[in-house]
Amino acid sequence: MSIHARPTLEDVAARAGVSRATASRVLNSSPRVSPEALEAVTAAVSELGYQPNRAARALVTRRTGAVAVVFSEPEPKIFDDPHFARLIRAGARALADVDVQMVLMLVHSPDDQARAHRFLAGGHVDGALVFAPHQNDQLVSIVKKLPLPVVYAGKPWGPLRGLHLVDNDNEGGAVLATEHLRSLGRKKIVHVTGPLDELSAIDRLSGFKSAMGIDDKAVAKLTADGGFTKQGGRKAMTELMAKVPDLDAVFVASDLMAAGALEALQEAGKRIPEDVAVVGFDDHVAIAEHTEPPLTSVRQDSDQQVKHMVAHLMKLVREEPVKQKREMLPTTLVRRESA
Amino acid sequence: MSIHARPTLEDVAARAGVSRATASRVLNSSPRVSPEALEAVTAAVSELGYQPNRAARALVTRRTGAVAVVFSEPEPKIFDDPHFARLIRAGARALADVDVQMVLMLVHSPDDQARAHRFLAGGHVDGALVFAPHQNDQLVSIVKKLPLPVVYAGKPWGPLRGLHLVDNDNEGGAVLATEHLRSLGRKKIVHVTGPLDELSAIDRLSGFKSAMGIDDKAVAKLTADGGFTKQGGRKAMTELMAKVPDLDAVFVASDLMAAGALEALQEAGKRIPEDVAVVGFDDHVAIAEHTEPPLTSVRQDSDQQVKHMVAHLMKLVREEPVKQKREMLPTTLVRRESA
DNA sequence: AGCCCGATTGGGATCGTTTTCATAGGGAGT
DNA sequence: ACTCCCTATGAAAACGATCCCAATCGGGCT
């Protein structure tokens, strides 16, 4: 090995006085190595600052050591919603922890879909984490056909048969929120939903419904769609105040919408929580702690979700058995001042 | 080639009736190949749906086909500031366009720095795009020592000798903004700065100073630090209203801060733009178009900046000559209603 | 002593490319 | 007709890991 070249396994083996094969076994923590060999190789590795060559390894193991993280979302939301930034960050971290490279793909247009298809089919990654909540998302049908391990974030639309996913307990969280409002003695509770082409929004709605013990017809009178945006939340809240003038509590299906709803309520002269109690969803700290008053919210731990997704995916990639295809993460209520 | 295995170059060559070497030459668009061979190979490639094996290629070319995109930013900002989401997205897109994988690294803690160092030194990527605007950022000194092509976004702190970077014309943009306010006949113009441990903030300040034609002492009386956050902008604005009660215009060094400043002004009963004209910086559409009133702002095109960074980096990676180490992108004024 | 067995080990093939080097095949120039 | 060169080609050697397979080495039994 020349002075400037990076050391290879050969160099390590030479230094440790063993063969390449043995050195390799140490690196892959095979049990069939003597303690002395193990020590010698370990020492050589750290003395030389050896780092395995990914490409060489990938070539022979037929694994790339990279996974794709795919966000399928019509253009603009990725900018506005801090939720995405958080998920991306969680992904970067969780994957780095298991020493896997993350290939980030943001899919907006049909063009992007085609590109994603080519890439995923091209064997450039060992698996994929897919964030595609919307109904009729072409990407999901594309990905389903691929012979590639995939773990979804939340339920994608369509049949779930055979899909691996990690979901938050949206329904349970909604029940928690609603029951909390009821336990405060609130009688007229309304609900700002997310876009109903996302199952997370639907699940939250159905949690609300069941905690209220009402049917579809009754529920329609108590809800409005806020589209998971701040503006939308504001608008939906205004709408609900017109529809249900005597409302005294609202469960809003996301913190971002709740921030909008709070503004609408306050502009209408309502005091929070005296006149109207408000509960959000996400417990997105950057939002919930800075609203006026601070927002009571249902906590879903996205970091945790992504971590589970990664762990799950790595099992699939290594063809280890997984206990269950679908994991459900609990949600909890975080009380602040708005309810 | 078996039925399910991905085709290799060997398969392509066989089908085209040439040797592996010739097929390879076609793929790398070498000039030394006959038209017939070219056509035959091209046809075979598309018939078989061949995609080169990255690992094999990486192994022999000693290039990974991946670059790191590194953000060095104390924890929380990455969530709040939509600017980051935009940069990340621009990076993902620009790199996908040149068929290079992006490895996203978010560096917050010293631990992260160590990890980044190991990774970058480990030869896992061909180069890096570095976003590290702050003073005394350890990461920059680490990265500088690495024998790795690097392109910075904006000027990192410290000596620029030998560094490659793509910067926005912050100073020019600030001049544009300030002169626009003067041309409206405003007499008492103040400035909300970004954190002065970032050179972009300093450059904007110095543009303001030179357009106002005043010295450091005078400038101190007309400025306050808003830290590039919304809350900070609000606070700085309040401070300035106390310091300069008769102010009739403000140039705010970012749109996010401008949103906060607008709130502060309006709560103090000022009409925009009648009483106080406001100009922001960034032209971050998601913000500037939705403030009340819509915000006049200095446009810097981050997508373009990232694209240039990628192009620049790829030249370095391929060891092609670059005309100039430092590129400066123009900024323009976008008029809306706030000034 | 002779044999077997399990535990370690090393040799060498292999993964799919790129790239060097040698060679074949023509046309141009004398 | 013979050389000279230039172009297009193919054979084969890398690149740096993993892993199959055979070989070695003791130790425990018979």
The number of strands of chain A is: 12
Under CATH, the topology of the largest domain in chain A can be stated as Rossmann fold
Q: Which CATH architecture of the largest domain in chain A is right?
A: 3-Layer(aba) Sandwich
First-to-last CA distance of chain A: 67 Å
Helix content percent band of chain A:
40-55%
The gyration radius over C-alpha positions of chain A equals 25 Å
The fraction of residues in strands of chain A falls at 15-25%
How are strands sequenced across the largest beta sheet of chain A?
2-1-3-4-5-11
Mean pLDDT of chain A: 93
The CATH first-level class of the largest domain in chain A comes to: Alpha Beta
How would the global form of chain A be characterised? elongated
Tally of helical segments of chain A: 15
Of all protein chain pairs, which has the greatest interface, and how many residues does each chain bring to it? A-B, 38 and 38 residues
The biggest beta sheet of chain A, please?
6 strands, parallel
Oligomer status: homodimer
Structure, described:
The structure is a homodimer of 339-residue chains. By secondary structure, the first copy, chain A, is α/β, with parallel strands linked by helices. The first copy, chain A, folds into three domains: 9-52, lambda repressor-like DNA-binding domains (434 Repressor (Amino-terminal Domain)); 66-168 and 303-328, Response regulator (Rossmann fold, 3-Layer(aba) Sandwich); 170-299, Response regulator (Rossmann fold, 3-Layer(aba) Sandwich). In chain A, 47% of the residues lie in helices and 17% in strands. Chain A contains 15 helices and twelve strands. Chain A has helices at residues 9-16, 20-27, 35-48, 54-61, 77-80, 82-97, 110-121, 138-145, 170-183, 199-212, 216-220, 230-243, 255-267, 285-288, 302-317; strands at 66-72, 101-107, 127-131, 150-153, 164-168, 189-193, 223-225, 249-252, 277-282, 296-299, 326-329, 332-334. A six-stranded parallel sheet of chain A has the order 2-1-3-4-5-11, sandwiched between helices. In chain A, strand 9 (277-282), helix 14 and strand 10 (296-299) form a beta-alpha-beta unit. In chain A, helix 1 (9-16) packs across helix 2 (20-27) and helix 1 (9-16) packs across helix 3. The first copy, chain A, starts with 8 loop residues before the first helix and ends in a 5-residue tail after the last strand. At the A-B interface, helix 4, helix 5, helix 6, strand 2 and helix 7 of A face helix 4, helix 5, helix 6, strand 2 and helix 7 of B. Chain A binds a DNA duplex (30 and 30 nucleotides) through helix 2 and helix 4.
